[in-house]
């Protein structure tokens, strides 16, 4: 879903052709956007009515498709940033992309997204803690345990951060 959010977001500012979209897209993971993922997504959005295209002629070069987001596409974008399904809540990029658009969603939706992320982190913390608890004692540096302890610390740190965001959200005293 993060890919859909990114592409639709990039089209919200103005219509664009594929190459321009690739230049606009910024991902928290820094993963490159390829034609093999962009054009099938644009085609899928067109079939769904979320995007339209017009053919723009160019002097001395092949014409190209310029894509425009529709009102249906704007609604789809809003729906995507307003929810974080449990199946995606453990994915850091899925969470962070929605967090980046928190100013565009209701307080209720922000709280639900934060709660989903918190639950996913709690589950990861429990899994890693269980793995650490079952590891046998080893002499010398136990590198697997070192890495798991670091992961556990990182998860706890993020969980505290999300708790702070949840507290801030509750402290607003209103529901949009």
TrEMBL record:
Record-linked SUPFAM superfamilies: Winged helix' DNA-binding domain
Domain of life of the organism encoding this protein: Bacteria
Domain Transcription regulator PadR N-terminal: 7-76
Protein name: PadR family transcriptional regulator
InterPro entries xrefs: Metal_resp_DNA-bind_regulator, Tscrpt_reg_PadR_N, WH-like_DNA-bd_sf, WH_DNA-bd_sf
Lineage: Bacteria, Bacillati, Actinomycetota, Actinomycetes, Micrococcales
Pfam families: PadR
Listed PANTHER family: CONSERVED PROTEIN, PADR-FAMILY TRANSCRIPTIONAL REGULATOR
